[in-house]
Amino acid sequence: MLNARLLIHIFYEINSGEKMNNQCTLLNGSAGDGAELKNHDMPGGPNMFRQLTMAARDAIIIINQQGRLAFWNPAAAGMFGYGQADLPEQDIYQWLIPERFHEAYRNMLNSGEHPSDGKTREIVMWRQDGSEFPAEISLSSIRILGRWHVLGILRDISERKRVEEELTKDRNLLHALMEHSDGQIYFKDLHSRFMWCSASQTKWFENCDSIDDVIGKTDHDFFSEEHADSARRDELEIMRTGQAISGKVEKETWPDGRVTWVITNKMPFRDEAGNIIGTFGISKDITEIKEAEIKVEQLHKKVVAASRQAGMAEVATSVLHNIGNVLNSVNVSCSVISERISGSKISGVPKVASLLRANANDLPGFFADGSAGQKLPDYLEQLAGQLQREQEEILRETGMLAENIQHIKEVIAMQQDTARTLGLVETLPVPDLVEDALRLNLGAVERHGIDLARDYTEVPPISIEKNKVLQILVNLIRNAKYACDDSGRTDKLITIRIEPGEEGTVLISVEDNGIGIPKENFTRIFNHGFTTRKEGHGFGLHSGALAAKELGGCIHVFSDGPGCGARFTLQLPIEPKRK
Question: By residue range, what is the domain housing residue 99?
C-alpha cells in the first residue's frame, strides 16, 4: 500500500509549500468550509500530484472536515463501483459507510484536530450495489486551501479476509482434530524429532502432561531401542523415497517391557515448495483387537488340533471298518475251507487202500470174480472227480483268503505310511490319492452293495500333504456311503470325478445319489458339531474343511435338495500353499 506520509511529502514538494488557491477550481467559488477540489482541475505542479494518484493501484480519497469527498482517484471509484465522474460528492457516511459504523468512523476521523498518525486500520464500506466489503485504510492529515483534510489510502481486503477466514477455519478444524481425535497424530522433522502432535499422542506417552513434554523429543525417549530404531528406519526410507507406508501393524515395546499394538500410516511431510522436511503420520491403538486376535488364534489352533485328531480318528475308523469287513470275508473263506475239508470224500481213499491190501495175494482174482473188485474202478473215478472239485473250491477260497489278507496288509501299510509322512509335502498323481482313499472305504462300499463309478480327466500331479488329502477324501466317501444307505435305493451309486480347476487347481468330486441336502443346511454343513445323522458327531466335514483351508484349497457342496443326492468337491492347488 502507498505510504500516506510519502504521498503528502510529494504533494508539498510539488507545490513548494504554497497554498493551492490559484491552482484549483472550487465547486462553490470560495475557500470556505464547503469548498471542494475538482478532480480534473489540478494544472501545473498539482497536476503531477494528480497523475501520480490517478495511476496508483490503491484507492486514494481526500475527505474534508465535514466528511465529504474532496478528491478520489480511479482506483477509488472502481472500488466503490462508480465511474470516475460519478462518485457522489456528498457525505461519505451516506454513500460509502454502512450506518452501523457511522459513529465509530466519526470518532476515528475526529480523534484529533489533525489526525496524522498514519496508522493502518480495517473498516467496512459500501459499494454502489449496496454490498459491503472490508477495506484497509491508512489516514494522514493534509492542509488544502487553509483547511485540514484527511488523506486516506484504501485497499480492498475482501480476498485477504476470505483467505484468512479459510485459514482460520482450517486451523480450527485442525485444532479440533488434534485435540479430539482418538488417533495418535504427529509431525516430525528430518531428525525424527516431534514438531507437533495430537492430544491423544501426548496421552499415549507416559509422564507427558502437555505437548511441550513431547516436542523436540524422539521415539528413543519413549520406546525401547528396538522399536525406536525400527520407526527411525521407516522414517528415513520415507524421506529418501517420498513413498508413504500405509496400514502397517506395529508392535510397540516400552522400556518396562509392556507391549502395545497400533496400525499406522506414515507419510512424507513437505513444505510449500514440495521439499520433504520430515514425516507425519497417524496411528490407531489396536492393542485390544490384537490381544483378542492372539486369543482367537490360540483357540483356533486348539480347534484345528482337535479337528485334526477327529479327522485322524475318521481315517482310523475307516481303516478299522475296512479291515473288519475284510476280516469278515476271511472268516467266511476259513469257514468254507473248513466245511469242505470236514465233508471231503477223501475218507474213501483209505477204504480203497484197505480193500486192496486185503486182497493183495489175489488181485487178479479180486478184480475178475468179486463184485467189489469190478465196482472199484468206477468208484475211484467218481472219488477223483469229487476230490478235484473239492480241491478247486478250496483253492478258490484260499486265493480269496490270500487276497483279503493282502488287502489288510495294504491298508495297514498305507496307514503307517500316512502316519510317517505327517506334514510332508509330496508330489503325487491325483488318481493315486483317490484310489488310496477308495481302498480305505472299499470293503464297506462293497458290503453295502454300492456301485462305484470313476470319471477321471487327466490332470497334473499335485504337491500336497498326503495324509490331509486322505483325511478329507475318506470322510467324503464315507459320508456318501451313509447317504446312499439312508436313501433306501437299490441302485446306490457313488461317482468319483477328477478334473482341472481354475487358476492352477484340480477338482476331486464325490457324488452320490443318496438322501440329498436341504439348501438351508448349505451354510452350516461345515460348522463344528453340525450333523443330521443320529450317530454322527459333526467333526468330519468341519475337520475336512479346516484341512482343505490349510492346504490352500476349499470344499464346495451342491445338492438339488432332499432325495436328489449331493456332490462335494474338493478344490486343491497344484503347487503347495505358501506360508
Answer: 4-156
Angle at the Cα of 193 from the Cα atoms of 191 and 196, rounded to 5 degrees: 135
Whether 41 and 85 have beta carbons less than 8 Å apart is answered as no
**SS3 per residue for 413-476:** HHHHHHHHCCCCEEEECHHHHHHHHHHHHHHHHHHCCCEEEEEECCCCCEEEEHHHHHHHHHHH
Distance (Å, whole) CA 253 – CA 219: 11
Enumerate the H helices of 181-224 as residue ranges.
199-204
Same domain for 193 and 66?
Answer: no
Mean pLDDT by 10 residues, the chain (579 residues): 49 42 30 39 53 81 79 85 68 75 71 55 83 85 76 87 88 84 91 92 88 92 92 94 92 89 93 93 89 79 62 57 62 72 73 77 70 72 78 76 67 58 75 86 79 93 86 87 88 94 91 91 78 64 82 90 92 77
Computed on alpha carbons and rounded to an integer, the radius of gyration of the chain in Å comes to: 54
Quick one: cell of 213?
513434554
Strand partners, 61: 72, 152
Q: What is the DSSP letter of 560?
A: S
DSSP class of 180: H
CB-CB neighbours of 420 under 10 Å: 9
Q: Tell me, what's the pLDDT at 291?
A: 85
- pLDDT of amino acid 43: 38
> For residues 322 and 411, is the Cβ–Cβ distance under 8 A?
yes
Residue 309 covered by a domain: yes
CA distances from 298 to 81, 221, 304, 306 (A): 77, 34, 10, 12
Q: What is the pLDDT of residues 98-117, one digit of tens each?
A: 778 777 777 766 654 444 55
Residue 150 bridge partners (DSSP): 63, 141
Which of 236, 266, 285 delimits the end of a domain? Answer: 285
Number of domains in the chain: 4
Strand partners, 507: 499, 571
> How distant, in Å, are the alpha carbons of 164, 228, 265, 290 from that of 250?
39, 11, 10, 10
The CA–CA distances, whole Å, from 407 to 283, 414, 415, 426 equal 63, 10, 12, 24
- Considering the domain architecture, whether residues 393 and 524 belong to the same structural domain is answered as no
- Three-class SS state of 135: strand
| Residue 193, pLDDT score | 95
Listed residues 285, 310, 327: the one ending a domain: 285
Residue 370's pLDDT is: 58
SS3 assignment, position 493: strand
Pair 11, 3: CB distance under 8 Å: no
